[in-house]
Amino acid sequence: MDPNQSNQNEPQSNHQSGADDTHATPAGSSSELSYDDKQMAMFCHFLAFAGIIVPFGAIIGPLVLWLIKKDQSEFINYHGKEAINFSITMTIVVVVCAILIMAVVGILLLPLALMLWLVFIIVAGIKANEGEYYRYPFSLRLID
Fold first, then answer.
1. How many folded domains does the chain comprise?
2. FRET label pair with 89: which of 8, 26, 78, 119, CA 20 to 30 Å apart?
3. What pLDDT, on a 0 to 100 scale, did the predictor assign at position 26?
């Protein structure tokens, strides 16, 4: 009996050794999330593109969706806060870069900041749609 019990325990210990997994979700697995939860979390990030058309739309778009859907799911609540915090951070960065254009440094920094904004929003939206809790690499944590 002891050899059989040790064989049964080995797969369990191997399964639990995934503590270093960087894509682990803090509260449950992505299989518990509904399709709508993943879609709304993705839209929280992608609504930042409204800033291309509407002034401050990068903040207003995710904010409105987050306020409407935050009580529906903890997953949507998390991604909504992340999207808003990142949009506020990037708005500040873009304003500073625009001011620095007078010092010529902004001419180089502004396109770089806009490219990072674009890439990080797309990555965050994809991760949200995959059911992962994505955290932007740099962002002011204004909404907790």
1. 1
2. 26
3. 54
